[in-house]
Amino acid sequence: MDENGKVVPEEIRGWNWGAFIYNIFWGIGNKTYLPLLCLIPVFNLFWIFVCGFKGNEWAWQKGDYQDIKTFKAVQATWNRAGLVQFIIAVIFGVLYFFFIATMISALINNNY
User: Fold this and answer.
1) For 1, which DSSP code?
2) 45 within a domain of the structure (yes/no)
3) Packed helices 43-62 and 68-111: angle between N→C axes, nearest 10 degrees
4) Range of the domain at 64
């Protein structure tokens, strides 16, 4: 239960990819402003995980959802977008690592 007396149903608790990846935009879109703390450098490395874990609860407490089904439908869009963005970021990170490793290897091999 939050300070407004709104009970958070157990079914909506859990990880929210949208709150994790798009924390600031997700927070504004869901009328919950704690994700704005992600604007603080270094602290945001910790806070993005808090947003991912607590996002559904914050959105439920601040939103005007009539039922769990509607809430889940709205958050499913955020979750899908966040998960796709996360996968794309991981793929680009791996490709970047291999590109840099290849460049370093080429430079080392050309010097000897």
Assistant:
1) -
2) yes
3) 160
4) 10-111
Residues 80-103 have pLDDT tens digits of 999 999 999 999 999 999 999 999
Residue 2 maps to a domain: no
Sole residue written with tokens 């709104």: 6
Considering its fold, how many domains does the chain have in total?
1
Angle, CA of 59, 61 and 64, to the nearest 5°: 80
Whether the predicted pLDDT of 23 surpasses 90: yes
Give the pLDDT band (50/70/90) at residue 112. Answer: low
Residue pair 51/35 in contact (Cβ under 8 Å)? The answer is: yes
Q: How far apart are CA 63 and CA 79, in angstroms?
A: 17
